[in-house]
Amino acid sequence: MDYSGRRGRLRERLGAAGLDALLVTYLTNVRYLTGFTGSNGAVLVTADPALDRLGTDFRYLTQSGQQSPDLELVLDRDCIPAMAQYARQAGISRLGFEADHLSVAAYDQLEADGGLTLARTSGLVETLRTVKDKDELALLAQACSISDAALAQVCTEVRAGLTERQVARRLDALMLDLGAEAISFDTIVAAGPNSAIPHHSPTDRPIAAGDLLKIDFGAMYDGYHADETRTFMVGAEPADWQRDIYELVAQSQRAGVAALAVGVDVRDVDHASRSIIAAAGHAEHFGHGLGHGVGLDIHEAPTIGYAGTG
Known about the structure:
The protein is an alpha+beta fold. Helices cover 40% and strands 19% of the residues. A 6-stranded mixed β-sheet has the order 4-3-2-1-5-6, sandwiched between helices. Helix 9 runs antiparallel to helix 10. It is elongated.
């Protein structure tokens, strides 16, 4: 991973944002910019790369040296105020902070310490993260490959009488056995009437023949998340209404995929899919967004929905 290059691209944005430096405190963004995966960390990106610093504490001294060998450290358990103190000493005046992530308490402490002009920013790092480099794409592909293989195996084992929870646990175990470091999010297995609940939590309800079975899941690989949803018929030929609904959703999905292109407004992509559902009389049943980016977070920009990206 070219962490120095990522910080360089962020550095190019500081001037346009009117900043001398940006204090990055959201741990996912810290990882993106440095490779550091500890639970306490911040990174200061300045106009001068020689002044960039990684902040953490003694627990992560060895780990930070292994993961971020190109950055000097500021070691303090309270790494955010310590990084701000370093910024003052480095002659930084206008310091940007991640307003979407910094707590009010942390902001109040920085303001009380004084000596810096604090500037709110939003999405400076996240915007960079929307475009994946080749290394990220390879990790995402591996996360998807693990997810696909686990689902293929669990599909050979699903039968009427198993509970939603049993299937979810089996799928989780298979992903881990196949090389996932973790699951991307709590696996959703929803059968019968539960399949209409977007974020259903698996229960002890037995799966019955004739159920629609929805599985929403994903593997995490080296920090990168897969997110996959599939719907199956269990143990019977589908009823006409089940086939009709399934085909309607599939048609809507294909229309959305066909509308995707470089430079297209995400609202137009959403409309291509949503209009098909609406024309069939089911507009009120489609309150969910159409899609979203994935990466180091399970939900990343761009968000594809009727309200645009966010």
